[in-house]
Design a protein that fits this description.
- With 170 residues, the protein is an alpha+beta fold.
- The protein is built from seven helices and six strands.
- The strands form three sheets. Strands 1-6 form a two-stranded antiparallel ribbon.
- Helix 1 runs parallel beside helix 5, helix 3 packs across helix 5 and helix 4 packs antiparallel against helix 5.
- The longest helix has 22 residues.
- The radius of gyration is 22 Å and the shape is elongated.
- 14% of the residues are buried.
């Protein structure tokens, strides 16, 4: 009769799962958006090919009205990935710590904890993208977008943030 209250074997299995899995968060599916995220996160300089020029559109009410010719443009680093990890690390740690008693008493599973952690981190990264303000956009970018919101134009970057649980065998 006492064995029906012995959660230790199941708890050990769940703790093993928790230790052998991780949560990956970011742009996970779209190669083009992965590149956009990386360029915005790390920064880069884009050079015109050969002796040519980059043709940067100038918009008025969303319509291209002319072009600016440039040999190169600098996209500054906007470390939203690292900032998400550092700015919210305590919140994520608190979340997992708060769920451990539920794991120990058998009312949750390792995968449920990891799923919640993934959802929490996606929300945190989207918040970081929305609230990111420095470095500011270039004046032409502000003109074209109609706002100075460095990581938001259409919202597709933030909307594309997702998570997946990966294990030792993935």
């Amino acid at each position: 009769m006492l064995d029906e209250f012995n959660n230790i074997p199941d708890t050990l299995i769940e703790l093993e799962k928790l230790n052998n899995h991780a949560v990956a968060v970011g742009i996970l599916e779209d190669d083009f958006l992965m590149m956009i995220a990386q360029v915005n996160n790390d920064g880069t300089v884009i050079h015109a090919k050969g002796d040519g020029y980059l043709m940067i559109p100038v918009k008025d009410n969303g319509e291209v009205v002319s072009f600016v010719r440039k040999k190169s443009v600098t996209i500054p680093a906007r470390h939203f990935l690292e900032r998400t990890l550092s700015n919210f690390s305590r919140t994520r740690q608190d979340y997992v710590e708060a769920r451990i008693p539920e794991l120990l008493d058998g009312t949750t599973t390792a995968m449920a904890i990891l799923d919640g952690l993934g959802q929490l981190t996606v929300t945190q990264m989207r918040t970081e993208i929305q609230e990111f303000k420095k470095p500011k956009n270039a004046p032409l970018t502000i003109h074209n977008k109609g706002k100075d919101d460095p990581l938001v134009d259409t919202g597709k970057l933030g909307d594309s943030i997702a998570y997946k649980i990966i294990g030792a065998d993935d």
